[in-house]
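Before going further, learn to read the protein records used in this course. A complete example follows; check for yourself that the lines match position by position.
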Amino acid sequence: MTQRTMTTTPLRPSHATDHLDLLESHAIFILREVVAECERPVLLFSGGKDSAVLLHLAVKAFAPQQLPFPVMHIDTGQNFPEVLAFRDATVAEIGARLVVAKVQDTIDQGKVVDPGLLGSRNRLQTVTLLDAINDNIFDAAFGGARRDEDKARAKERILSFRDTFGQWDPRQQRPELWQLYQGKVNPGEHVRAFPLSDWTELDIWQYIEREKMALPTIYFAHERDVVKRDGMWLAVGPFVEPREDEPIERLTVRFRTVGDANCTGAVLSDADTLEAIIDEITLANVSERGATRADDKFSETAMEDRKREGYF
């Protein structure tokens, strides 16, 4: 993927390249194993950094052939425009088939309640995702989740099997000793596969630098109108309107993670290059979701509850 070529420098620690090679090799192994076991896989692609790395690895895993499965985005309708533009450009460049499942369609069908223009649709994605999996008869879905993001994700296996209703039971997971995986999908089940489980945020950025990957511009420091809400800097726009007690400030910020515009906070940062971001992440002591995602901040079990319901 080369839409936006970055100016990069070699990785500074010499051992990092070996470490990244091992992570890459294992991820590619998982991608190939799941494709060998399953008939109709799909790769979940939001346009964020983790799913961009996952898609990059998938292209490598099956080169020189095109991807043997489609790419799917669960579109809440509250995305950052830069991310949607990157999504479309990336999929077009690699020649993949893009499936877009819209939360708005789920609302229109009366399956979930519309939270209103400024309300969060984040949790509504679960119903849209499960419907899309069933409608397309997908038996496996690759996701870019990492264990270091959240306590619930740390509990999950690399191959996460879901029941007929798409639900996850952490007590019914298959053992994965010595990186041996039981990939058979039983009737009525589907599997979520997470090839990036053992990666960290720092690994992701070092790999992006090494591979000279493109990313949405919002990951790099830029000036933006923001308001302070619930301890986070939210970008002013169609999905975030300032309240009476919220002055608009023009600040230099970047986004560590990408989600809905009305629940994803920016961080104050001057890091406008990959090297600067890597240096910044090296010193960070809070995960990107813990620091900047409103949907995770206010409940110790928020992510686990959603995963039990069928979330990514």
